[in-house]
Amino acid sequence: MDILYLMILCSVSLAAVFLVVFIVYARKGQFEDDESPAVRILFDSDEIREKEEPGSNENDDEKGESKKIEEKSE
């Protein structure tokens, strides 16, 4: 009978630990975005990289600015 009390105590304490961990991560915003991971798998990895890479646009802007500077100097 003593083992039954021990098992109940262990299971309740484990449940309390999981509840505290869940509350902490819920406050940090871990569970805010639940739609995009499900949609992300539908796209090719190349399409995702093109959308996420703002660096390619910055390089184009820098080239365009250098062309403007060259045109002004001429």
TrEMBL record:
Pfam families: FixS
Ranges that cross the membrane: 6-26
Comp. bias regions, Basic and acidic residues: 64-74
Region entry Disordered, spans: 47-74
Source domain of life: Bacteria
Alphabetized UniProt keyword annotations: Membrane, Transmembrane, Transmembrane helix
Cross-referenced NCBIfam families: ccoS
Name of protein: Cbb3-type cytochrome oxidase assembly protein CcoS
Gene: ccoS
